[in-house]
Amino acid sequence: MDDEGSSVGFKLYNQIELQEFPDKFIVKSPDEGFSIDRSNGNIEPLTSDSCPGNPTKVQTIYGVAGTIRLVAGTYVLVITSRKEVGKYLGSPVFRVMSMNFLSCNAALKLSTAQEKRDEAYFTALLKIIETTPGLYYSYETDLTLNFQRRFKLTEGWTSRAIWKQADPRYVWNRNLLEELIECKLDGFIIPLLQGSFQAAALKIKDVPANLTLISRRCTRRLGTRMWRRGANLEGDTANFIETEQFLEVKGFRTSLLQVRGSIPLLWEQIVDLSYKPQLKLINHEQTSRVVERHFQDLLQRYGDIVAIDLTNKHGEEGQLSAAFAAEMKKLPNLRYISFDFHHYCGNSNFDNILLLYDQISEEFGNQGYFLVDSEGQILEEQKGVIRANCIDCLDRTNVTQSYLAQKSLDLQLQRIGLLSSAESISMFSEDYTTFKIMWVEHGDEISVEYAGTHALKRDLVRYGKQTMSGFIKDGISALSRYYLNNFQDGIRQDAIDLISGHYTANKNRPSPFPLNGFESLSYLPVASALVIGGLTLTSFTLCQGRNAQHYVSSVLWAGLTAGVLALVKANGRQFCSRPRLCGLV
């Protein structure tokens, strides 16, 4: 066991100076530093003999998130601003507010025309990466391990470099850290966690308490909503997130883990300009093995698993759900529950979620939670997790997880003795409101990272019912998702694949952008202009008069408009933003 106070933990440098010179960058802390050659990106530790002269520019940075080599240059990602958002196990936690890539690409001028075009596209992807939402880190502790797991680690674990403590599957920038690791610059190596971090102070019956909500997004199948669905052949699922609710009160520390992830089958939903693209199951001989690999991994990490499927039982969702249920029947020692959330809880019937809880209350109670007293003694252990999913693993999933989190919080407070068996956190309006807001903001952040917009059904978490203002906001978010999914997410997916190492850029592999390639997306503005112009001219000629010439003109323009609409509809996929670097599976 490695309790947080039992040994001196490793700390990263938090005072870092970036010096710019014509031929190099120098990154310095009070105790250590290194230089980066601006021509080739090579890293060299600073020595006592290093006397580089006067820099052309000096600025404070808050971390080096790593390096990436492209076709003709190396780029160094640095954190340029941060915000403290709370504490985890007593250590300050920061959110990345802005990042910037430093260019070390002097060799670009010697590159071929194709290499320059490739580099231009890749550097455009780096601009997208600079705006990645939901990145968190700490200079003093690792955020990727949940409390129960880290509490059981061997003595002295926290004295290791923070990147060595971290779980690689939750380190967003793991692929960028290789060169820093090779140079043994442990004090500068910051593992970034993508997900959500919410912290709030409660006062239950005048007893102060700290509640933390932390979500960890897995990087193994990282991507955007429509371009990363289902599982890969290794059993890793899209939008897989471990969520930990952590409470500190009266010297006790307690946590609850839940997980979410896309339905672990091979399936896709490719955008084609329709509001709800077709769900398609991919027939593959490895399907059963994929499902088995996914749940075997969960069993090894968490113990007993209860899988809750919140998808609709009719239409395309129903077909996907039925296929999932059929595969789950082949796996022993796993409980699978199908609960059509829209059927039972639609039309503001949120109280019907009790029907789900009644089905899982026994297993949920047996899985329990992790509880440690003020002496560091383990009083309770969590023996399994609830795995929830809907189609996106966002809105319905977040409502369900927040409900289960409240149930567990009641049990924890009762176990500690702060609440009686007849009391609930919901009886304390101020604290309950804080709890609900934390879960709403958590859901928003997770949704922005995957779908690009705030979560839907936020009112169900905050108020337990749908309000008119919430209905309008959901409509706006749904339209925003439509636009982003169809016209932005292809290039976003390329950026994610590049930064996560699923695609490696180098001059020795063929260009992913062939010369004179058909860029169908570039024709969308032309098609849109023709449709709008055709409708306008059709209306104009109709209003001009009723003679035969005007009628013929109206028919011609209406026919042209209908033809363009039919062309766009028939080739909807070709007009959408598509990723170019990696396949779907």
**Inertia-based shape:** globular
Overall mean confidence score, pLDDT: 89
For the record, give the distance between the C-alpha atoms at the N and C termini, rounded to a whole number: 39 Å
The low-pLDDT segments are: none
Can you count the beta strands?
20
What's this, in brief?
With 585 residues, the protein is an alpha+beta fold.
What attributes does this structure have?
13-stranded mixed sheet, 15 helices, globular, 20 strands, 585 residues, single chain, alpha+beta
Describe this structure in words.
- By secondary structure, the chain is of the alpha+beta class.
- The protein has 15 helices and 20 strands.
- The strands form 3 sheets. Strands 6, 7, 8, 9, 10, 11, 12, 13, 16, 17, 18, 19 and 20 form a 13-stranded mixed β-sheet that branches. The protein has a 5-stranded antiparallel β-sheet with strand order 4-3-2-1-5, with no helix packed on it. Strands 14-15 form a two-stranded antiparallel sheet.
- The chain is globular and about 90 Å long.
- The two termini are 39 Å apart.
- The relative contact order is 0.10.
